[in-house]
């Protein structure tokens, strides 16, 4: 079995893949180490951004997990980048926030915001990291078991 945090990442990738607002041709991946070529873009990559236990005194731990949905794309020449990215942002936020608990895995999810993480102006490549924080409970000594 996977940790509660990893189960949430799997659920996020599934939600993005299945959401009706997903822009045509967009793929969803979990491998953030994967190199993408221009012809495979746009792509959304879902990955773990860290976690911090909120309460360490009991057998039950409230975990605050950061997850990233990184959008990688090529912005067409003559297009305003923010205008081009906006439908992707709308899709990502709506898909992730549609079920904040991911079927009972988390007690809440919060959208923190988006940040450009990489651009190459000569090729019009861009990557924007959309950050979310989930709160879930797990056993202190067993990250696979919900509390």
Fold blueprint:
Layout: H1 4-18, E1 27-29, E2 43-53, E3 60-74, H2 81-97, E4 108-120, E5 125-139
What does the model show?
The chain starts with a helix and ends in an 8-residue tail after the last strand. Helix 1 (4-18) packs across helix 2 (81-97). The protein contains two helices and five strands. The radius of gyration is 16 Å and the shape is elongated. Helices cover 22% and strands 39% of the residues. Strand 4 and strand 5 (125-139) form a beta hairpin. The protein has a single domain (4-139), classed as Alpha-Beta Plaits. The protein has a five-stranded mixed sheet. The chain has helices spanning 4-18, 81-97, and strands at 27-29, 43-53, 60-74, 108-120, 125-139. The chain is α+β, with helices and mostly antiparallel strands.
């Amino acid at each position: 079995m996977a940790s509660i945090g990893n189960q949430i990442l799997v659920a996020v990738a599934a939600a993005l893949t299945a959401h009706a607002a997903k822009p045509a041709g967009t793929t969803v991946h979990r491998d953030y180490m994967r190199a993408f070529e221009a012809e495979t873009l746009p792509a959304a990559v879902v990955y773990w951004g860290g976690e911090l236990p909120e309460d360490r005194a009991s057998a039950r731990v409230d975990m605050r997990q950061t997850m990233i949905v990184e959008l990688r794309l090529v912005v067409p020449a003559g297009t305003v980048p923010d205008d081009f990215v906006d439908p992707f942002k709308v899709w990502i936020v709506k898909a992730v926030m549609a079920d904040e608990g991911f079927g009972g895995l988390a007690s809440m999810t919060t959208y923190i915001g988006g940040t450009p993480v990489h651009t190459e102006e000569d090729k019009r490549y861009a990557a924007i990291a959309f950050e979310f924080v989930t709160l879930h409970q797990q056993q202190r000594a067993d990250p696979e078991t919900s509390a």
